[in-house]
Design a protein that fits this description.
The protein has ten helices and two strands, in the order ααββαααααααα. The protein is mostly helical and 242 residues long. The chain has one domain (4-241). It has a two-stranded antiparallel ribbon with strand order 1-2. The protein starts with a helix and ends with a helix. This is DUF554 domain-containing protein. It holds the Pfam family DUF554.
Length: 242
C-alpha cells in the first residue's frame, strides 16, 4: 500500500518520543547531555556519508568527485532565498502556535525540540528517496529503516527537549506523505539524477543539523532549506539548454 512507509515512520516518532518523555525525569542532566552529544555526532556522520555517497564515484580504480559546483550553488542560493524569506522565523512561529495549542507555554525547549527534530527527521536522503520509492511502487523498505533510526533519535531528543519533539510527528507525516502523494502523480517524470542530487544536498544539511546538536547552534539550517529545490531548477535549465 502506497503511503504505508509514512504511517510507520509517524507512529515510530510518536512512540519513541513518548518513551523519551517517560524517561525524562529519570535521566540525569549529565546523561541527557552525553546522549545529545552522541546523537549529534551520529547525525554528523549520517550527513557526511550521504553527501559523499552522492559526490564520490570510482572510475578505473580512481576516486573522482562530482556535483561540487551544484552543492555550492544549492547551499548559497538556497541560503540566500531562505534568509530573505526568514524561514526559521516562520518555523519558530509555527512551533509557538503548536506550543500554545498543546498548553506547554512554560516549556522553554518546546520550539527548539519541535524545529530541530523536524529538520533532522524530515531533511535527508532517506526521507526523500524513501518517500519517492513508496510513491512509485509502494516500496517502503527505506522508510522502515528510517523509522528505526528516527525512533532512537526522538527518544533521546524527547528526554532532553520535552513535548515539542512529539509534535514533529505531524511534520514527518505532512512532509513524507506530501512527497509520496506528489510522486504518485509526477514520479514517472523524475530522473535518477535529480533524485540523487536532491538527496546529497539534503545530506549536507543534515551534517549542519548534527553540528548544531553536538556543539550548539552554528548554522541556521531552516533558512537553508530552499537548497533542496535548486537541483530541480538546475536540471530544468540543463534540459532547456539541450
Amino acid at each position: 500500500m502506497k503511503g504505508l512507509g509514512t504511517i510507520i515512520n509517524t507512529i515510530a516518532v510518536i512512540i519513541g518520543s513518548g518513551i523519551g518523555l517517560f524517561l525524562k525525569n529519570g535521566m540525569k542532566q549529565k546523561m541527557q547531555n552525553i546522549l545529545m552529544q552522541a546523537c549529534g555526532v551520529a547525525v554528523i556522520f549520517i550527513g557526511i556519508a550521504g553527501t559523499l555517497q552522492g559526490m564520490i564515484t570510482i572510475h578505473g580504480g580512481k576516486i573522482e568527485t562530482k556535483g561540487t559546483m551544484l552543492l555550492i550553488f544549492s547551499l548559497v542560493i538556497g541560503g540566500f532565498i531562505g534568509q530573505v524569506l526568514d524561514i526559521e522565523k516562520w518555523l519558530d512561529a509555527l512551533g509557538e502556535k503548536i506550543k500554545t495549542i498543546a498548553k506547554a507555554k512554560e516549556d522553554n525547549q518546546f520550539v527548539e525540540g519541535f524545529v530541530n527534530t523536524s529538520l533532522i527527521i524530515c531533511v535527508g536522503a532517506m526521507a526523500i528517496v524513501g518517500s519517492i520509492q513508496d510513491g512509485l511502487n509502494g516500496d517502503y523498505s527505506m522508510l522502515l529503516a528510517k523509522s528505526i533510526l528516527d525512533f532512537v533519535i526522538v527518544l533521546v531528543f524527547a528526554s532532553t527537549h520535552g513535548l515539542g519533539v512529539m509534535f514533529s510527528a505531524a511534520a514527518i507525516f505532512v512532509y513524507e506523505g506530501g512527497i509520496t502523494l506528489l510522486t504518485v502523480f509526477i514520479g514517472p517524470f523524475l530522473g535518477n539524477t535529480l533524485i540523487e542530487n536532491m538527496s546529497f544536498v539534503g545530506a549536507a544539511l543534515i551534517f549542519c543539523v548534527g553540528v548544531n546538536i553536538a556543539f550548539g547552534k552554528k548554522f541556521n539550517v531552516g533558512n537553508m532549506l530552499p537548497a533542496l529545490l535548486v537541483p530541480g531548477v538546475y536540471e530544468l535549465i540543463l534540459n532547456l539548454i539541450k
